[in-house]
Amino acid sequence: MDVAEFEQHRDESSPATPPILTFLTTWRADPLAIVAIVAVGGLYATGVWRLARRGIHWPVARTLAFFVLGLGSFAVVQFGFLGAYSGELRWAFTTRIALLLFAVPGLLSLGTPVALSRLVLSGAPLRVMDAVLASWPVRLAGNAVFAPVFALAAFCVFLTPLAGGLRESPVAGAILTVAVPLVGLLMVLPIVEHTTQRTSFFITVEFLLVFVELVMDAIPGILLRLNDAVLDRVGPALGALPAWFPNALHDQHLSGDFLWFIAEVADVPVLILLFIRWSRVDRREAKALDDLSDEEMDALTREHLRNRPQ
Q1: pTM of structure
Q2: What is the distance between the alpha carbons of residues 15 and 257, in angstroms, rounded to a whole number?
Q3: Which of 49, 55, 205, 261 is the most exposed place for a label (fewest CB within 10 A)?
Q4: 292: phi then psi, degrees, rounded to nearest 5
Q5: Residue 80 backbone dihedrals phi, psi, to 5 degrees
Q6: CB 121 within 8 A of CB 129
């Protein structure tokens, strides 16, 4: 039996996904991820400790969310099955990247690290952080439209041979381990922690555009699922393989299935956050108008009518 016949036979006779026990009990050590967890967790814990010394209570729920949900999800993705088989399985690699981009940053943001930093820092460090948050790259990434557009562009890489090189390169894997969650945090933190000011009209426009992106984000996953050619051009896995191991094409189809699902689900929290932010901004703008005196309201109306296009 040649390789092609073996691959076809394996695809027809195997379930192509690991048994649940194998999925839950497969672990591997990732030194870079360990360093990242210790460094980030240490900074957060130091911030909470410094607040406690000053008599300021930091909510326990936020601390638990940051460590258990945020860093915990990062550890599961990196140390678990997805991290262990990221180099061998396309669907493990694409699912890992999608979760690092969307799920992990979203869960980390529940700990509101920016708010914690603003309470802890003072002087030059605080000014530097505020300057970074006010910089145009961060403001661009914090635009709700940027996240789905960036995800669409990033996931389109999975349709090219570059995906195979990234999947098999240890250096690229190490860079992605740090860079992907960092980009995700830049996208989600400004929305969650309101580090950028938006008008209700601007948020409404963002809301409508995200609905469009909700459809566009499905494109890479659909193309991976429907394509009958192996797009990353990585050869078949050789050697002793588990009985459930899929062939290259089935692996790609599974990759498309999971990517499609995650990309669509990830847009839902963005829509919810936008709705919450729109409600808050709308209430703030309404209160600002209610606080105006009759003379100020008349002056504002005259200014609006004067600037209205003829």
Answers
A1: 0.78
A2: 15
A3: 55
A4: -75, 145
A5: -85, -160
A6: yes
